């Protein structure tokens, strides 16, 4: 029995080290990885299926929240796209 596919969403132009390690781990365990993106991502591993996220959830349906940070941390607040409407 084949391992189920893993679906991931990435908003940005480049995957970070943690995301690349996560993808590598899923692939090593025999899962297909589908990366849903809204714009081209520079460093997607060749084994990953890139899918237009607009076909899954239009970007205009995403809710964007500003995440406040404690006073001692950097400003401005981090912006995070979470949730669907």
What is the helix tally? 1
Task: Give the total of domains.
Answer: 1
Estimated radius of gyration: 15 Å
Task: Estimate the mean pLDDT confidence.
Answer: 80
In the predicted model, the low-confidence regions spanning at least 5 consecutive residues are 69-75, 77-85
Main sheet makeup: 3 strands, parallel
N/C terminus separation: 35 Å
| Strand runs, count | 5
Q: What are the main properties of this structure?
A:
85 residues; 1 helix; 3-stranded parallel β-sheet; 14% helix; alpha/beta; 5 strands; two-stranded antiparallel sheet; disordered C terminus; single chain
Write the SSE topology:
Blueprint: E1 6-10, H1 17-28, E2 33-37, E3 49-52, E4 62-67, E5 78-84
Parallel strand pairs: 1-2, 2-3
Antiparallel strand pairs: 4-5
Descriptive report:
Mean pLDDT is 80; it is low at 69-75 and 77-85. 14% of the residues lie in helices and 32% in strands. It is built from one helix and five strands, in the order βαββββ. With 85 residues, the protein is of the alpha/beta class. It has a three-stranded parallel sheet. A two-stranded antiparallel sheet has the order 4-5. It has one helix spanning 17-28, and strands spanning 6-10, 33-37, 49-52, 62-67, 78-84. It is globular and about 35 Å long. The chain has one domain.
